[in-house]
Amino acid sequence: MSSSAAPSQDMPPKGGFASIRYERRLPRRGPSGVVMFGICGAVMAYGWYRVHLGLDERRELDREKMWSRIHITPLLLAESDRDEYRRNWAAVEREREIMKDVPGWEAGKSVYSGRRYMPTVIANVPIHQQK
Amino acid sequence: MVNPGYKHFKGEDWVDPTPPPAHLPTVDEVGCTGAPLKSASFFIGSMCKEYNEDFMLCKNETRDPEHCLLEGRKVTRCAIDALQKIQSKCLSEFRTHWQCLDSKNQELGRCRQQEKVLNQCLFAAFGWKKDVPGSPANKPQIHERKPLTS
User: Which DSSP string corresponds to A60-89?
Assistant: First the structure.
């Protein structure tokens, strides 16, 4: 209505508003991030060191086991070779005895024509030739 | 006649009692179970190195068992000799160790105490030293280390 009164408008106080403290103000507690990162790294490094020790021990145990087997392999192989030769020889002798009436029969002749050694596939023991 | 097969399988059916042929020189078999062999393996390996390598090189030529009978007899005689030597000086230590191996699933790592005694006895008697080939040179060998877990 009356246009003489000056309009009043809310204005900021003189000098402006004080700044608003919006960040949290908490006391610093515990180690910093870098330190925690370092602790984690140290724990993992120690763990990997122990893993390395264990792997190293296991590798050496395996090496020892393999060499203990390698050292007695010739012995076992020689023994089984003698047994195989004895059994094969006995089987050929039996075959010769059984087939002595057949002319032209070669006892113990390989079924292969090559000269490479082939072990007999069928176990030939006396029990199979008994009546 | 017994048919070989699943139902009638008996171990004695497969035994061939024929003695070895007369034209071969006789040789005693070792007649030893696994644990004593494993206990003595490194000493057999170091003492019979030439015979073993000779035999394996011969086996490399052909698989025929007849081909390497001579070398095989040498290998067996040497192993018997090694075992008798061990037993002549360190019988009780040897026995303790292989009985431990027998009860510990034949794992060498679980019988280190007995092995240490045996190795010391053999070193004192014959100067034999256990050596695992291929071990890293900058660390003690596995039988001289302290085990991580015991």
Answer: HHHHHHHHHHHHHHHHHHHHHHHHHHHHHH
* B65 to A84: CB separation less than 8 angstroms, yes or no: yes
In contact, B75 and B48? CB cutoff 8 Å:
yes
The whole-angstrom separation of Cα B52 and Cα B45 is 8
Average pLDDT for chain B = 91
How many contacts, defined by CB atoms under 8 Å, are there between A and B? Answer: 131
One-character DSSP codes across B57-89: HHHHH---TTTTHHHHHHHHHHHHHHHHHHHHH
Q: Which residues of B touch A75 (CB under 8 A)?
A: 30, 37, 44, 52, 75-76, 79
- HSE-up of residue B28 (Cα within 13 Å, Cβ side): 10
d(CA A89, CA A120): 12
Q: Is A87 on the interface with B (CB under 8 A)?
A: yes
Q: Do A118 and B65 form a contact (C-beta atoms < 8 A)?
A: no
Query: Residue type at A82?
Result: R
pLDDT along chain A (131 residues), means of 10: 72 87 87 95 98 96 96 96 93 91 90 88 72 50
What are the tens digits of pLDDT across the range B64-100?
999 999 999 999 999 999 999 999 999 999 999 999 9
Question: Domain residue spans in chain B?
Answer: 30-126
| Cα A103 to the center of its chain, rounded Å | 60
> What does pLDDT average to in each consecutive run of 10 residues of chain B (150 residues)?
59 81 93 95 96 96 93 96 96 96 95 96 96 94 89
Residue A10, helix vs strand vs coil: coil
CA dihedral sign, ordered A112, A118, A123, A124 = positive
